[in-house]
């Protein structure tokens, strides 16, 4: 048989109907409210490719180096064409159509969902790997089934399975065909806290179909319910601007604006919350493991659309951390054992042998656990920084390369010591304190030192749910795992320049020696690492923004312009528009990533001044094959000119504007942020800077453009308070500050809610 009904499916039918099908069948059998439907079995797919004789060719086509993005693209195209161009056997066609005609009244709208045999497993979710189609009718049903089969070989799916070690020829795919619930409201429910496992129900809810919540295109209401008392502990009501609905005329799934009177209205009634709590208890009891549930409400009835195990709950610690010993310098840090002092740029305590690095060829001498001591770090030092236990620099401030990268890697750092390379001796055992900004002689006990990824993982039991999104800054792909561990809502800034500078050559020299394809592949590889780690959470990627003095340090740098003040010179979008041969390769990398299925990427252009810059960049996007109407893209607000011209920028079609406070501050106050002589007057909270930011946020709210901040100031409580008061859409914080910012945002939002009803 080509199809089986959900009524007849159970959890042990995984090989027959895949993870999603098995889960829905199990829920149906348990008497839970699941919309009716059937499954085109995994065996039907296997028979299809084997009987048609395309199986060997199919699996041979996808046996490629998954780090070779061009080969990956070709593999996907070959596999897709093989499946879509092969006719479906007549008996299979008729059985699927007969089953469809038995759903509803025979002309129902259905959801067609992929259900691979390697997904929704206890230790691997594989969520989002294959296709889902909504509001499908008989006319398109068979093609949608084949599209689901073909999606087993999307670029992203091939890459992901290779990384996870799942052989392509051992994974089959079933297709769930289920009556659509024309949801009035929908969302997701966790039966335990997804990070800590705390015994509470967390529900996210929005108007319309659930795709908007799952994909992250709408900020949903959030409800935290105690499993012990059944009481709603917190209810955060979001500004729900859009909803996903079925168009009555075309039958297609479309995005519509939420009516003004419902945007701030609470989605779920008390009765619906109680019903979801009841269903959550039932489904967890049935599976005997915490569940991630998709649900929908139609005409007062709550339906369960999907349930999978929560795979993100961390193992409980053996004991409570002693707060007095948690990342705090001891009293001895103020004593005679302090060798040098600087700025505490990246928190934590680490001990190791000082390794003095004055030339790049000294980096080979840096062993695992050493302390790098150098004048200032550069991007090509990142591999050694990953090996190091800590970083000490003579020069630099809180926004220097050493500070930013160290924070993201979770490596303690002390910068701006002035003479660390002269005062410390090579091979000397020292302890650096990235909180206090000190370097002490001798070694700290091992138990007092930190583990980078685990230190990023929140220690507080509950992630604060906020209407304002809290994202994270990522400078280098290597930090993506640590950034994702924070539980942030996405990446507010991923910098391309660190990927490019790490090549050790200017873009022009690298392309000259290795070719355009190799350059595109380098960008694709780096961005993909972060996009994969966060999927489906959004990752906002900034195109190249490196001053000429940074390029001059690289091979080929002798051709760079010599500028008196590179921070005011040939950088950002002005460089990209002036040298489109390199800029278009960056955009080709984005297009390649979109084609691979990374629809969570957003493109951001740096250092724009006016609408002309934006319109020219937009045209380059089109030429690269990126549709600006379908992809999220926007600009950095780093100059007073950009802030003052925000209406014109919005008219040019941007989806978002993100404040780069590091540059906006220096350009507004005429303060070089890397100049220690004027560091004391560098102030992101200066009234002039705040006025530019506040006016821009207000204008963007009026014209429907999202706003965010991705500069270092986004981690400061006073800036957070100001931004939330003004109505910013999101705040992107440093990795080590995400949880603090989440709590601060929640506190300000609650105050605003109280003020509005008093």
Automatic annotation (TrEMBL):
The keyword tRNA processing does not apply. Transmembrane segments: none annotated. Residues 435-458 have a biased composition (Basic and acidic residues). It catalyses: pyruvate + ATP + H2O = phosphoenolpyruvate + AMP + phosphate + 2 H(+). Residues 313-333, 435-462 are annotated as: Disordered. It comes from the Archaea. Residues 15-324 form the Pyruvate phosphate dikinase AMP/ATP-binding domain. InterPro entries: ATP_grasp_subdomain_1, PEP-util_enz_mobile_dom, PEP_synth, PEP_util_AS, PEP_util_C, Phosphohistidine_dom_sf, PPDK_AMP/ATP-bd, Pyrv/PenolPyrv_kinase-like_dom. Gene3D superfamilies: ATP-grasp fold, A domain, ATP-grasp fold, B domain, Phosphoenolpyruvate-binding domains, Phosphohistidine domain. Residues 315-324 have a biased composition (Acidic residues). One of its GO terms (molecular function) is ATP binding. GO terms for biological process: gluconeogenesis. Its cofactor is Mg(2+). Pathway: Carbohydrate biosynthesis; gluconeogenesis. Belongs to the PEP-utilizing enzyme family. It comes from Haloferax prahovense (strain DSM 18310 / JCM 13924 / TL6). Residues 459-749 form the PEP-utilising enzyme C-terminal domain. Residues 367-437 form the PEP-utilising enzyme mobile domain. Keywords: ATP-binding, Kinase, Magnesium, Metal-binding, Nucleotide-binding, Transferase. Signal peptide: none annotated. Catalyzes the phosphorylation of pyruvate to phosphoenolpyruvate. This is Phosphoenolpyruvate synthase. Its EC number is 2.7.9.2. The keyword Nucleotide-binding applies.
């Amino acid at each position: 048989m080509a199809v089986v009904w959900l009524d007849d499916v159970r959890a042990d039918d995984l090989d027959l109907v895949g993870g999603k099908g098995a889960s829905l069948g199990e829920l149906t059998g348990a008497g839970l409210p699941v919309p009716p439907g059937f499954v085109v079995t995994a065996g039907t797919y296997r028979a299809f490719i084997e009987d048609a004789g395309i199986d060997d060719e199919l699996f041979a086509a996808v046996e490629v180096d998954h780090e070779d993005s061009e080969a990956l693209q070709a593999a996907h195209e070959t596999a897709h064409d093989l499946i879509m161009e092969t006719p479906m056997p007549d008996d299979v066609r008729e059985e699927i159509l007969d089953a469809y005609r038995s759903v509803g009244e025979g002309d129902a709208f259905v959801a067609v969902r992929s259900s691979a045999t390697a997904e929704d497993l206890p230790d691997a979710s594989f969520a989002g790997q294959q296709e889902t189609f909504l509001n499908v009718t008989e006319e398109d049903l068979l093609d949608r089934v084949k599209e689901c089969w073909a999606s087993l070989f999307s670029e992203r799916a091939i890459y992901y399975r290779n990384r996870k070690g799942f052989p392509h020829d051992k994974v089959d795919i079933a297709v769930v065909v289920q009556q659509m619930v024309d949801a009035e409201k929908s969302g997701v429910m966790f039966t335990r806290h997804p990070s800590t496992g705390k015994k509470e129900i967390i529900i996210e809810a929005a108007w319309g179909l659930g795709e908007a919540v799952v994909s992250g295109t709408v900020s949903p209401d959030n409800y935290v319910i105690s499993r012990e008392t059944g009481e709603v502990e917190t209810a955060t009501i979001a500004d729900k601007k859009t909803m996903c609905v079925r168009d009555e005329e075309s039958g297609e799934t479309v995005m519509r604006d939420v009516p003004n009177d419902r945007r701030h209205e609470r989605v779920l009634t008390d009765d619906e919350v109680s019903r979801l709590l009841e269903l959550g208890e039932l489904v967890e009891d049935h599976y005997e493991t915490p569940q991630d549930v998709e649900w929908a409400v139609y005409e007062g009835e709550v339906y369960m659309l999907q349930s999978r195990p929560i795979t993100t709950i961390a193992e409980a610690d053996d004991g409570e951390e002693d707060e007095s010993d948690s990342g705090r310098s001891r009293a001895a840090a103020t004593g005679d054992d302090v060798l040098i002092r600087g700025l505490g740029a990246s928190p934590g305590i680490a001990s190791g042998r000082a390794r003095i690095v004055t030339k790049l060829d000294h980096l080979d001498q840096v062993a695992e656990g050493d302390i790098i001591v150098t004048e200032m770090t550069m991007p090509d030092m990142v591999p050694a920084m990953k090996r190091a236990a800590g970083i000490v620099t003579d020069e630099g401030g809180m926004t220097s390369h050493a500070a930013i990268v160290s924070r993201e890697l979770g490596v303690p750092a002390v910068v701006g010591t002035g003479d660390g390379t002269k005062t410390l001796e090579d091979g000397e055992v020292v302890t650096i304190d990235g909180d206090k900004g000190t370097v002490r002689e001798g070694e700290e006990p091992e138990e007092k030192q930190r583990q980078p990824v685990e230190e990023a993982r929140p220690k507080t039991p509950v992630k604060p749910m906020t209407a304002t999104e809290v994202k994270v800054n990522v400078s280098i792909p290597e930090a993506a795992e640590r950034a994702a561990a924070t539980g942030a809502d996405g990446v507010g800034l991923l910098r391309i320049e660190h990927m490019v500078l790490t090549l050790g050559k200017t873009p022009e020299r690298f392309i000259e020696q290795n070719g355009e394809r190799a350059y595109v592949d380098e960008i694709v590889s780096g961005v993909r690492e972060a996009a994969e780690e966060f999927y489906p959470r959004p990752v906002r990627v900034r195109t190249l923004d490196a001053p000429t003095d940074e390029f001059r340090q690289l091979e080929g740098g002798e051709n760079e312009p010599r500028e008196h003040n590179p921070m005011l010179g040939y950088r950002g979008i002005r460089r990209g528009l002036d040298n489109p041969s390199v800029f278009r390769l960056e955009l080709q990398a984005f297009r390649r990533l979109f084609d691979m299925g990374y629809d969570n990427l957003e493109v951001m252009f740096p250092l724009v001044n006016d609408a002309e810059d934006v319109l020219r960049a937009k045209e380059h996007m089109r030429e690269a094959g990126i549709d600006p109407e379908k992809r999220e893209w926007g600009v950095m607000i780093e100059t007073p000119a950009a802030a003052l011209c925000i209406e014109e920028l919005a008219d040019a079609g941007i989806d978002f504007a993100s404040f780069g406070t590091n540059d906006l501050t220096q350009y507004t106050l005429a303060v070089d942020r890397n100049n220690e002589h004027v560091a004391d007057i560098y102030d992101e909270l200066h009234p002039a800077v705040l006025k530019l930011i506040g006016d821009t946020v207000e204008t963007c709210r009026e014209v429907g453009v999202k706003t965010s901040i991705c500069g270092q100031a986004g981690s400061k409580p006073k800036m957070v308070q100001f931004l939330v008061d003004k109505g910013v859409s999101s705040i992107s914080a440093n990795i080590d500050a995400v949880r603090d910012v989440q709590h601060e945002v929640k506190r300000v939002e609650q105050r605003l809610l109280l003020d509005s009803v008093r």
